[in-house]
């Protein structure tokens, strides 16, 4: 690929250990800095629009953010059915917060994000997410390490959404058993935990590792999938843990009824049918989940 001298290409380096990179031709760098926690670059890209990268890993692209934000919020909330207190760990761009706040049952949404710079610049560059979130009195954003927060808070939640970076840098601790145990401690009876668990085609061990830890803590540990174009490698896995297996086996008609009750707000990827189908795992993903089955569960 011949590059003009003034062209800039930014590479996703998340898969360097696998020997490949996805690179994006940059139209304009909007912001690039090293925060206290990570390297942050926000740039305009011809096809994907605004893109955010943290420590060389793509976080969000304007063009396809709806897939991930909708699936990480509406699946746990409609599976739960009556979530009133919700916690987001990470989620700096507030895309998920904006989706969660569409649920009228939600009485309070707390977001714990480690990097104030991500929130500050999201307020400047992603007002379409941060605007509605910060305008909603149910929303509060706490700047703290999510692992520390779940270990120490007295608050309890019906749904916890871990919208983290990948297991590197500040995000690494959000894939630890100690963190998941902290989440379990903060969940109300009937609560649901969902986690961003990477693209199993490239990050298979990450999924098995999370499932192994979930199985020690929860009666039901599985994942659901969604295809997110900018997260290269096919399906992305979203970890799903609860103590009630029925929550992830609800039929379309139940999810559709809950969606109607919530006001059938507009979505571009999630639907009651997609919700149910997302738990149908491609065989190689089901095997990665099954490999964790053998682990003994911790005494609750
Ligand atoms: N949607 C993106 C994805 O799938 O990769 C992730 C969105 S969001 C940008 C990820 C957020 O997690 C970042 O803002 C990052 O600062 C935050 N984060 C990383 N480690 C954290 C920690 N230990 N506690 C709280 N937030 C953390």
Please tell me about this protein's structure.
The chain has 300 residues and is of the alpha/beta class. The protein folds into two domains: 2-61, Spermidine Synthase, Chain: A, domain 2 (Roll); 65-293, 3-Layer(aba) Sandwich (Rossmann fold). The protein has ten helices and twelve strands. It has helices at residues 65-80, 95-100, 116-125, 127-135, 146-152, 177-186, 200-217, 252-261, 272-277, 283-290, and strands at residues 8-12, 22-34, 39-45, 49-54, 57-61, 85-90, 108-113, 139-143, 157-163, 187-196, 220-227, 235-242. The strands form two sheets. A seven-stranded mixed beta sheet has the order 8-7-6-9-10-12-11, sandwiched between helices. The protein is globular and about 55 Å long. The model has no long low-confidence stretch (mean pLDDT 93). It binds S-adenosylmethionine. S-adenosylmethionine is lined by residues 54, 59-60, 68, 89-93, 112-115, 118, 145-147, 163-165, 170-171, 173-174, 196. The site of S-adenosylmethionine has 25 residues, from strand 5, strand 6, strand 7 and helix 5.
């Amino acid at each position: 690929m011949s590059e003009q001298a003034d062209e800039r290409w930014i590479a996703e380096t998340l898969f360097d250990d696998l020997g490949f990179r996805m690179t994006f031709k940059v139209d304009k760098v909007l912001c690039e800095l090293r925060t206290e926690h990570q390297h942050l670059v926000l740039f305009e890209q011809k096809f994907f629009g605004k893109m955010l990268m943290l420590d060389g890993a793509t976080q969000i692209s304007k063009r396809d953010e709806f897939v991930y934000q909708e699936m990480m919020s509406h699946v746990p909330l409609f599976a739960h059915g009556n979530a009133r207190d919700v916690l987001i760990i990470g989620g700096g761009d507030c895309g998920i917060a904006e989706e969660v706040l569409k649920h009228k049952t939600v009485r309070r949404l707390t977001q714990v994000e480690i990097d104030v710079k991500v929130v500050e610049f999201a307020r400047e560059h992603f007002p379409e997410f941060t605007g509605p979130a910060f305008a909603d009195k149910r929303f509060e954003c706490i700047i703290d390490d999510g692992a520390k927060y779940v270990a120490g808070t007295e608050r309890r939640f019906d749904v916890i959404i871990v919208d983290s970076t990948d297991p590197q840098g500040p995000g690494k601790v959000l894939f630890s058993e100690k963190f998941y145990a902290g989440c379990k401690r903060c969940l109300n009876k009937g609560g649901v935990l969902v986690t961003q668990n990477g693209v199993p085609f490239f990050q298979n061990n990450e999924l098995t590792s999370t499932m192994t830890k979930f199985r020690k803590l929860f009666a039901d540990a599985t994942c659901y999938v969604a295809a997110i174009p900018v997260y290269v490698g096919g399906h992305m896995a979203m970890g799903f843990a609860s103590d009630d297996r029925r929550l992830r086996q609800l039929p379309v008609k139940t999810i559709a009824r809950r969606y109607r009750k919530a006001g059938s707000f507009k979505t571009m990827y999630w639907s009651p049918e997609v919700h149910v189908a997302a738990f149908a795992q491609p065989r190689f993903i089901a095997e990665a989940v099954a490999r964790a089955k053998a682990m003994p569960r911790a005494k609750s």
